[in-house]
Structure formats: structure tokens, C-alpha cells
Specification:
Length: 106
């Protein structure tokens, strides 16, 4: 059996967290994203997924995506994702193709 070397990850809030796997790091990123979303006034999503609706100036829906909180709040800015609402969708993210909170570390 191979030993996994622990990684030390520094959150956006300058906290150091020891991660033994990539899933650990993703959970830390999701927690960062939860805190950023709360600071910006967005609702909490238990799945860490949000439905994002992008409309044109004519109010026609151009795109409807399921995006994880990491992509929206850590890797990018919510202003780029249109209307953002929490969703019970628990599949993978349309942006990064990684799992929702329920499947990370499962």
C-alpha cells in the first residue's frame, strides 16, 4: 500500500489545512466558497452546486448551467454567472467536471 504524502493547503482566509487526498483539498475549497458566498449574500447550497441562468438583453435564456461553488466563488467571480441560486442537483459541475459535495470523499 502506498503512503499518501499530506499536503498543506492555505485557504483564501490564510488558514493552513493538512490535506491527505485531493478530496480533502476540494472539501476545503468548498468550505472557502461557502464562506465567500455568505459574505457576498448568496444562499448556502448543501450540495455546493448552483444553477446559473445567463440571459441576454432581450431576457431570453442563453445558457443554464449547474456550477459548483468553487468555480463561482473561488476560481472566478459570481458576476460572470448571471442569476445564481442553490440547487439540489448533485451531479458534476458543468465548468470543472468535478463532483458535488455529496460525492467528494465518498
Amino acid at each position: 500500500m502506498n503512503d499518501i504524502n499530506p499536503l498543506v493547503y492555505t485557504t483564501k482566509f490564510e488558514e493552513k489545512v493538512e490535506c491527505k487526498t485531493c478530496d480533502d483539498e476540494r472539501l476545503v475549497l468548498m468550505e472557502d466558497a461557502d464562506r465567500i458566498a455568505k459574505e457576498l449574500g448568496y444562499k448556502y447550497s448543501p450540495t455546493a452546486m448552483y444553477v446559473c441562468i445567463i440571459r441576454g438583453s432581450d431576457d431570453i435564456i442563453y445558457d443554464k448551467l449547474n456550477i459548483c461553488n468553487v468555480c463561482i466563488f473561488v476560481e472566478d467571480s459570481p458576476i460572470n454567472y448571471g442569476e445564481i441560486e442553490p440547487t439540489s442537483y448533485d451531479g458534476d459541475c458543468d465548468e470543472c467536471c468535478l463532483d458535488s459535495r455529496f460525492y467528494v470523499g465518498a
